[in-house]
Design brief:
CATH class of the largest domain: Alpha Beta
Helix content: 25-40%
Largest sheet: 8 strands, mixed
Shape: elongated
CATH superfamily of the largest domain: Zn peptidases
CATH architecture of the largest domain: 3-Layer(aba) Sandwich
Radius of gyration: 24 Å
Number of domains: 2
Number of strands: 16
Strand content: 25-35%
Structural class: alpha/beta
Order of helices and strands: HHEEEHEHEEEEEHEEEHEEHEHEH
Distance between the termini: 15 Å
Length: about 400
């Protein structure tokens, strides 16, 4: 068996290298034709055409633009594991000067979902070719709407992608431009925060700025609310948390006091009990301040993605697979992140591992972060992305414990 494992490892490395030029074409097509969340119709059709060419069976139309495919090895009912990629792009106007820049103005693959999809397609082709060498079934989930509430993952789960049977584990990767290509990063246990959106309307009484007796300035009420909340949620909190407001709209003028102020922000944490408590606490504080100042406050919390927890055992195994595939020196431990990911929904249903794929290359000037208009990757990362995912899936299916 040991010799067979070494042969498979060598075969996957070699095949990933051979497939790289083809997958670069796939990734560039996806990058050139991005689509927004839950609008990925042409993207889904393109993915379906590739799966057809690979001879992999699949189902389309899940949550409209989602796809689920399966690769059956020997004894397909022994175990099922799932691999996931996201399909959607962001509402960003690309400013790169590249042959494969977005042709859809104001829409860009600035978060690397083109990379995730291309890598999963490459892994799928390798696993399809190796299907006689593993036990069980690989389920491929191509998911829409990662970037937009309520999150495509939550809808795909409701549609049954984790059923019949329930996967033993689910694996996904995400581009990491601050990490050099050739490296990957993992963190066991808690990794990413829950994400909630805050929409606040503060109501006062407008009027002429020169006549303060005739108005109740909602800007002052809103400023106190923001200041107080930042102070309260900046100390003595029971879990890592971030409360931040990024939008403050008061449509008055130099001599016009508006009647209301709009505020928008985000709340993130890593404890679900505290998350619920915090929602009630911030609403209560804001409403109390507004009432004391003679105004009113409408505070809406739109609950988003839960925290993302990597299953300890699954992630430990995945780290081992990565060390075998890339060498221990190329596998790093990651710190906690207060960013969010809708893959978190999967992690609350089945043992999950969400890891980072290095895509940066300082020597080539490829350093822009995700969600920026100059984001790009070192495309050699696609070989790592498809190869490691295939190797991880093969081992997860063939493990005996």
């Amino acid at each position: 068996m040991e010799n067979n494992v070494e042969q498979i490892l060598s075969a996957i490395r070699q095949r990933a290298s051979q497939l790289l030029p083809e997958l670069i074409v796939v990734r560039r097509h996806l990058h050139r034709h991005p689509e927004l969340s839950f609008e990925e119709y042409k993207t889904a059709a393109y993915v379906a055409s590739i799966l057809t060419g690979y001879g992999i069976s699949f189902q389309t139309g899940i949550v409209e633009t989602g796809i689920v495919a399966e690769i059956k090895g020997r004894n397909p009912d022994v175990r099922t594991i799932a691999l996931r990629a996201d399909l959607d792009a962001l509402p960003i106007l690309e400013k790169n000067n590249l042959d494969y820049c977005s042709v859809n103005p104001g829409v860009m693959h600035a978060c690397g979902h083109d990379v995730h999809t291309a890598s999963l397609l490459g892994a799928a082709r390798i696993l399809q070719e190796l299907r006689e060498s593993f036990e069980g079934t690989v389920r491929l989930i191509f998911q829409p709407g990662e970037e937009k509430l309520p999150g495509g993952a939550s809808l795909m789960i409701k549609a049954g992608v984790l059923e019949n049977p329930v996967p033993a584990s689910i694996i996904a990767q995400h581009v990491f431009p601050s990490m050099e290509t050739g490296k990957v990063g993992f963190r066991k246990g808690m990794y990413m925060a829950s994400t909630d959106e805050l929409y606040v309307t503060v109501v006062g009484k407008g009027g002429h700025a020169a006549m303060p007796a005739d108005y109740n300035n909602p800007i002052l009420i809103a400023a106190e609310i923001v200041s107080t909340l930042q102070d309260v949620f900046g100390k003595d909190i029971p879990a890592p948390s971030v409360l931040a407001f990024g939008r403050f709209i008061a449509n008055g003028a130099t001599n016009v006091i508006p009647a209301e102020v709009k505020i928008e922000g985000t709340f993130r944490t890593m404890n679900e009990a505290w998350r619920k408590e915090a929602h009630s606490k911030m609403v209560s504080i804001a409403e109390t301040i507004a009432m004391k100042r003679g105004g009113a406050c409408i505070f809406e919390v739109r609950a988003g993605y839960p925290y993302l927890a990597n299953d300890e055992a699954t992630t430990a195994r995945a780290i081992g697979y990565a060390q075998q595939y890339l060498g221990e020196e190329n596998v790093e431990e990651l710190p906690l992140r207060m960013t969010g990911e809708d893959f978190a929904f999967y992690s609350h249903h089945v043992p999950a591992c969400f890891y980072r794929l290095g895509t940066g290359n300082k020597s080539k000037g490829i350093t822009s972060g995700v969600h920026t208009d100059t984001f790009d990757i070192d495309e050699n990362a696609l070989a790592v992305g498809m190869g490691l995912m295939a190797w991880t899936a093969w081992n997860e299916l063939n493990r005996t414990e």
